[in-house]
Amino acid sequence: MKKRLLNGLMGLGSCIVDHNFPVSAGPRYGQKTFFLSSPSKAEKTVGGVTLNHLSWASALGVPAGLVGTVGKDSSADMIVDELRKRDIDCSYLYQSLNHHTSESYVFVPQTAGERTVVMFAEPKRGRLIGLPHWLSSVQNCAMVSSEIHQFSLETVLKFFSKARRSNVPTALDFDMPASEVVGGRNKLGNENELIGILEKADVIKASRTAAWDLVGQADTCVKLRSLTGAKLVVITDGPAGSQLFAEGMKRPMTFPAIPPTGRILNTLGAGDAFFGGLLASLYANYNDIPTEEPELRLLAEHASACGAICCMANSTMAPTRKEMWLHAKDKIHEQYYNTLRDLALKVKRRRATATVPDEGGVLTPADEVDERQIESA
Questions:
Q1: Of the candidates 140, 134, 191, 182, which has an alpha carbon nearest to the alpha carbon of residue 158?
Q2: Mean pLDDT across the stretch 320-341?
Q3: pTM of the model
Q4: How many CA atoms lie within 13 A of 109 on its CB side?
Q5: Which of 205, 202, 151, 194 lies closest to 13 in space, CA to CA?
Q6: Most buried residue, 104, 185, 269, 324, by CB count within 10 Å?
Q7: Rounded CA separation 93/67 (Å)
Q8: DSSP annotation of 139
Q9: What is residue 242's three-state secondary structure?
Q10: N-term to C-term CA, the chain
């Protein structure tokens, strides 16, 4: 890929307020469980697939901005506050009286690790596709990212198509199985839109579940890259590690997951953190995708270290840039901590060489829009 000196990662996708409920055990169909404290006192945290990976990239120094929709409510205020703390541009976070900010109920069992999540996803977010403010700014980005998880496929396809026409690299978090995306209860669009997005993604990070559902369990990484033509395909498999397959390689390479140094509190969001670390590493390398083992290993280490740190925190979002290094120091081994510090320095050097276009920078501030503007766009 060509070097781009225009600074910034623009992400299109979900932002959610999580209501976290401590329970005696994770809820299962046909069984009862108990709250360990009053449900009215549930801890609230901010998350969402795209918001999460932007926060991890930002914590490592990458300038980032979020495109999304929220309501005009207290949950939206909380999201904006957390974005600003993490230096994530929220100029394109559109608010409307007729929307409700996405929320989820997260049941946190006494045993650490997997949590049960029940989500409410605002169905009207596809209306963003006509708004000119953020779409016209895609061409000024160093990279764009999105998700296959909550946003309408039509919106993501429009976003990636604009990026491709502008020669801006695209990165996709393929987190949800295709069978659910195009035919399940969480239907986001049709099969043609899904394939169109995958074909326009330069980098695809897929969960093992989503990849297996689309191309099967044999030679998954090879088949996914063959189907999509992506320059880099990464398949994550939790503690089993990740598999990377880049353009020009004869076969995929597998790398182990970096283990956290202490007790795992929460695996929710670890894949988002992994993707954020991956994007920060690519950004620091001017989006050049490595094909040799040492460079690929370093890319995987950057991503996996962020995932490990996330597993030892209750929040799926990254800490702020100021808090990142104190937060990370006791959660991963020293060698990986130092590797991340080196990455942050490389990101800083890239930012120092960046140029800013005359029209106002990477993410041009946009005024808030109301429902009438969304409807007429």
A1: 134
A2: 90
A3: 0.87
A4: 15
A5: 151
A6: 269
A7: 5
A8: G
A9: strand
A10: 33
Between strands 253-255 and 16-23, the pairing is unpaired
Q: What strands lie across the sheet with 143-148, from one edge to the other?
A: 88-96, 64-71, 9-12, 143-148, 170-174, 203-207, 232-236, 242-246, 253-255
Distance, in Å, from the CA atom of 267 to the CA atom of 112, rounded to the nearest integer, reads 9
Residues in the chain: 377
Residue 41 has a CB neighbour count (10 Å cut-off) of 9
- Phi then psi for residue 306, to 5 deg, are -65, -40
Q: Assess whether pLDDT exceeds 70 at residue 202.
A: yes
Q: How far apart are CA 217 and CA 41, in angstroms?
A: 43
Sequence letter at residue 41: K
Distance CA(337)–CA(334), nearest Å, equals 5
Spatial CA neighbour of 141 closest among 53, 62, 49: 62
DSSP-derived secondary structure for 118-131: EEE--GGGGGGGG-
Q: State the helix-helix crossing angle for 220-228 and 208-215, rounded to 10 degrees.
A: 70
